[in-house]
Amino acid sequence: MDLSKLTISKARKALDAKEYSALELTNAYLTAIAEKNPEIHAYLEVWEDSAREEAKVADAMIARGESQPLTGIPIAVKDNILIEGRTASAGSKILENYKATYDATVVTKLKNQGAVFLGRTNMDEFAMGGSTENSAFGPTRNPHDTSRVPGGSSGGSVAAVAANLALAALGSDTGGSIRQPAGFCGVVGFKPTYGKVSRFGLMAMGSSLDQIGPVTKTVEDARIMLEAIAGYDAKDSTSLADSATRSGTSLEKVIGVPREYLREGIDADVLQSFEATLARLRAQGYEIRDIKLPSLTYSLAVYYIIMPAESSTNLARFDGVRYGLSVPAATIQEVYTKTRGEGFGPEVRRRILVGTFVLSSGYVDAYYRKARAVREIIRADFARAFSAGGGSSLGGESVDAIALPTSPVPPWKFAEKAVPLAMYAADIFTVPVNLAGVPAISVPSGAVVREGKDLPVGFQIIGAHGNEETLFTIGKDVERGF
User: Fold this and answer.
1) Can 237 be counted among the known catalytic residues?
2) Residue 463 half-sphere exposure, CB side, CA atoms within 13 Å?
3) One of 21, 89, 92, 153 is an active-site residue; which one?
4) Which domain holds residue 125?
5) Which pLDDT score, from 0 to 100, does residue 390 have?
6) Which of 48, 153, 253, 264 minimizes the number of CB atoms within 10 Å of its CB?
7) Residue 126, by phi and psi: left (phi above 0), alpha (psi -120 to 50) or beta?
8) pLDDT above 70 for 108
9) Residue 177 is among the residues annotated as catalytic for this protein
């Protein structure tokens, strides 16, 4: 079997037709992991024995005629999603030896379908970063050019799919952590509407921003994965009722482009690739309409206030007392200090400090509460663009989706963006989506050349709240253009 051409839908047909077994498919991926992972470092841990046992169970399900969409499909899981009995370190030394005591809801759903879990993937520590350079266990490399980053924080999950070391993977997206690496590695990354997929069992970073989503090779595979993991969950207080999802797709075929947001900070060839993809969609009958989203210019500043604030609160639980690393000391204060000093990496400490500052007395009004107020303006701008007679669109008409590049730049070389602000700026096109809580997908849309190598470029499509279906429709049309 050719893993480079295999998709979930193709594997499903082959498995059900008995062309090969789930065990044979799993063994093929385990062999590929053994060959390539030492260089790519997509996986922190590979579960060979249990994966083979799960594959045998899947084969039995298929033999009984109980096959489901993901039965026997080999999947990778990001290191911040809990699987009972498995280490879940979130890429951090402070949780290096922590074993999960229960399954995340998404894991339970995949287990119920008979999916095969290949292992846990590398990530930026506690999902803080855009390059997977911040992992305490070493960086992951981009399969297209191993001298460059795969993006982050879900770089391990994305690299596993891009390097044919998994048929699909789960990641988490707080400010673009699925979409940006998907763009960098030439695969599909999907960030669902906030609340559509349960966060129960996901280690929290920014609780109002985090969302689990799929990484796949095709848009159709992303749909299959999303349908498997989505749904209301009483264990998650932010979970949306199933009725919140819109059904059907718009027939208008109108895509809005906030061109004022594309004037600065984007590489010329990345912008050229974006425009070329828009032209292909126009040739397929889409109307490309310039729109105004005036608040988008504040998104990066708002995100890097709200996200550190929520992160500093969530990471307060890692104190050396309850679980994880604990460094002995004479006083409880010294235990806290030494444990967090040794357990947390530089980027995590940086964001905790920023978050604590913006929440501190005397500054909470000037920074955090003001950022929350601007966030509501950003959310309202998106809502108006998608609503009939929306005031944000030129001409007063609504759009079906909004298009932006996934990233303003292609994947950079390791240590090239050592200055934190330089890396933060690369999130400019992805963070507004998380602030607004709307769904978005990154679809491969060609490549740009750097030092003689073709580097993938992602095309990002943003939809209205609960309207994932439109993104799948447009995403497939983008795929047809290549």
Assistant:
1) no
2) 27
3) 153
4) 1-252+290-389+411-443
5) 46
6) 264
7) left
8) yes
9) yes
| HEC readout, 32-54 | HHHHHHHHHCCEEEECHHHHHHH
**CB atoms closer than 10 angstroms to residue 336:** 17
What do you get for the CA distance between the two ends of the chain, in Å? 24
Q: Write down the catalytic residue from 21, 36, 78, 398.
A: 78
Per-residue burial over 398-433, b = 16 or more CB atoms within 10 Å of its CB, e = otherwise: bbbbbbbbbbbbbbbeeebbeeeeebbebbbbbbbb
3-state secondary structure labels for all residues of 72-116: CCEEEEECCECCCCCECCCCCHHHCCCECCCCCHHHHHHHHHCCE
Which residues sit opposite 444 in a β-bridge? 458
**pLDDT tens per residue, range 121-165:** 999 999 999 999 999 999 999 999 999 999 999 999 999 999 999
* Confidence band, pLDDT 50/70/90 cuts, at residue 394: very low
Whether residue 478 lies inside any domain: the answer is no
CA distances from residue 333 to 187, 318, 320 in whole angstroms, order as listed: 46, 13, 10
Give dist(CA 424, CA 437) in Å, integer: 20
Domain count, the chain: 1
Q: Which among 159, 201, 202, 171 is positioned nearest to 38, based on CA atoms?
A: 159
Name residue 333's amino acid. Q
As beta bridge partners, residue 462 has: 402, 440
**Single-letter amino acid, residue 285:** G
Which residues have C-beta within 8 Å of that of residue 235, sequence separation ≥ 6? Answer: 105, 198, 200
Quote the pTM value: 0.96
Q: Is the pLDDT of residue 409 over 60?
A: yes
Question: Residue 67 falls within a domain, yes or no?
Answer: yes
Is 36 inside a domain boundary? yes
Q: Which residue bears the tokens 């070389």?
A: 413
> Could you tell me the CATH number of the domain that includes residue 64?
3.90.1300.10
Cα–Cα distance for residue pair 254/265, rounded to 1 Å: 26
Q: Are 375 and 305 in contact (CB under 8 A)?
A: no
Q: Rounded to whole angstroms, what are the CA distances from 419 to 257, 300, 347, 424? A: 30, 16, 11, 9
* Catalytic residue of the set 67, 92, 177, 442: 177
Q: Give the type of residue at 241.
A: A
Taking residue 39's Cβ as centre, other Cβ atoms within 10 Å add up to 11
- Specify whether 299 is catalytic: no
| Inside any domain, residue 453 | no
